[in-house]
């Protein structure tokens, strides 16, 4: 039987909140980057692709440290945000940013693959008939790659649920504030007698991840039938 404390329940809620927020805020820029990589003729696509995929090959702790340098009080962005009394370090915002950065490549990669599978003749026919680029985008491109968008969001959400390295560096491990499920498990494994509590959270993490994958697959099949 699951043995969950109030802090554990809060960690579950924070994990869901972080994963949902990170996925939502990453979707517009993720779609834009995927569009540039798949359908545009811009120069420097290889460089952009390398930058986007960098979090996939870097250790999450390194990604978190770079974000710490960027959003710290002396960082380029942190110094600017400090003028508006906005703090990122050791806050829930930091956890969201860390999850968004780490999961961003998975989102972009999935959407890009979907866009590359679109027959260019549909887009060319739409433009030939006088449709503006945004009309083509919302009537041709988005519907045809909707399954790829859903797959990317599912992967990113699941990745955000399990994010640990970058989050603990940027947001810390503060119970009730920034402590997500992976961070709570880490704390229990470092505490004598915390094995049963860690196992309970592990089971919760497995159930949540499996549920996300099942929901994503069901939604994917629904879109395929349409």
From TrEMBL:
Entry superkingdom: Bacteria
Signal peptide per UniProt: none
Transmembrane feature ranges: 12-38, 50-72, 84-107, 164-185, 197-216
GO CC annotation terms, alphabetical: plasma membrane
Keywords, ordered alphabetically: Cell membrane, Membrane, Molybdenum, Transmembrane, Transmembrane helix, Transport
Membrane topology, record value: Multi-pass membrane protein
GO molecular function, one term: molybdate ion transmembrane transporter activity
Subcellular location: Cell membrane
Pfam family, one: BPD_transp_1
CDD domains cross-referenced by the UniProt entry: TM_PBP2 (cd06261)
All copies of domain ABC transmembrane type-1, residue ranges: 12-216
Family matches, as Gene3D superfamilies: MetI-like
Homology family: Belongs to the binding-protein-dependent transport system permease family. CysTW subfamily.
NCBIfam families (alphabetical): modB_ABC, PRK09421.1
Function: Part of the binding-protein-dependent transport system for molybdenum; probably responsible for the translocation of the substrate across the membrane.
Protein name: Molybdenum transport system permease
Species name: Candidatus Electrothrix aarhusensis
């Amino acid at each position: 039987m699951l043995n969950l404390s109030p802090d554990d329940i809060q960690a579950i809620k924070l994990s869901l909140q972080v994963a949902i927020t990170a996925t939502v805020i990453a979707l517009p820029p993720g779609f834009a980057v995927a569009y540039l990589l798949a359908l545009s003729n811009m120069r420097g696509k290889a460089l952009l692709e390398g930058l986007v995929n960098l979090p996939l090959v870097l250790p999450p702790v390194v990604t978190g440290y770079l974000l710490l340098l960027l959003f710290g009080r002396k960082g380029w962005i942190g110094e600017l945000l400090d003028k508006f009394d906005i703090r990122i370090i050791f806050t829930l915002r930091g956890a969201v940013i860390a999850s968004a950065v780490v999961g961003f490549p998975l989102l972009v990669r999935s959407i890009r693959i979907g866009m590359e599978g679109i027959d260019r003749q549909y887009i060319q026919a739409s433009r030939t008939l006088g449709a503006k680029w945004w009309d083509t985008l919302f009537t041709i491109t988005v519907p045809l790659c909707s399954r790829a968008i859903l797959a990317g969001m599912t992967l990113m959400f699941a990745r955000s649920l399990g994010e640990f390295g970058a989050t603990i560096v940027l947001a810390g491990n503060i119970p009730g504030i920034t402590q997500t499920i992976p961070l709570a498990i880490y704390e229990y494994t470092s505490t004598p007698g915390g094995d049963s509590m860690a196992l309970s959270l592990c089971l919760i993490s497995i159930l949540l991840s499996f549920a996300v994958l099942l929901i994503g697959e069901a939604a994917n099949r629904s879109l395929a039938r349409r």
